[in-house]
Amino acid sequence: MDRWFEKLIDACVIASNELSLKDALQTLTNELGFDCYAYLNLHPNETYAISNYPAEWQERYLSRLYATVDPVVTTAKRKMRAFSWTENQSRNLSKETRQFYTEAREFGIRSGVSIPVMSGFGNVAMLTLASNKLERYSEEDFDPVVAAASVAQVHTKFSRQSATATIGHRLIVLKPEERICLKWSAEGKTLEDIAVLEGMKYNNVCFHIKQARKKLDVLSIQQATAVATKLNLI
């Protein structure tokens, strides 16, 4: 598989746009004997995927927050190195994990290889190659350093191209106080104005705005109001 990962690096270098890289990923995935690939970019408040998995499975995976119960994702975050997996790799599975594997099987996902890499600021990106065959791929077949280098190239290429995700999901829940403070800010009110209008202490207004910025993963009030408006949170 080392030669395959080297070919993946070559494909990243010559890919002129995201479509050519996606095509190369699909071709190389099939060339290696796998059925599907999935590139996942995992953030605390946001997860998005670029994949040729069945669209229905992608929608279900992200809408039901399966990244929180997917044992492949859990293992990737813990190991932070390339590994192989199968649906029956452990007998001591939780009810949620068994259900997850059952549903994945319906879409032809039974085994595979996953390669996680650090994507900066404590976040993780990973590439998974999946098969409908129930077999365990030997981890001795590939060099984890070469594997990580190739996936880092994939991550960098997609990030620089601002590639369009196949599907994405962002889970952000703002408290009522955070939403009202942002809404007033969007209307052009200062923090002092908001404190008077809502009968809050100035320090409390600052706290709610700070918490909202943290949840929205932005640096300024202006960015927070723009993102919250875009996501229909205010």
Automatic annotation (TrEMBL):
Entry annotated with the keyword rRNA-binding: no
Record-linked Pfam families: Autoind_bind (PF03472), GerE (PF00196)
UniProt KW keywords: DNA-binding, Transcription, Transcription regulation
PROSITE patterns: HTH_LUXR_2 (PS50043)
InterPro entries according to UniProt: Sig_transdc_resp-reg_C-effctor, TF_LuxR_autoind-bd_dom, TF_LuxR_autoind-bd_dom_sf, Tscrpt_reg_LuxR_C, WH-like_DNA-bd_sf
The HTH luxR-type domain, residue ranges: 167-232
Protein name: LuxR family transcriptional activator of conjugal transfer of Ti plasmids
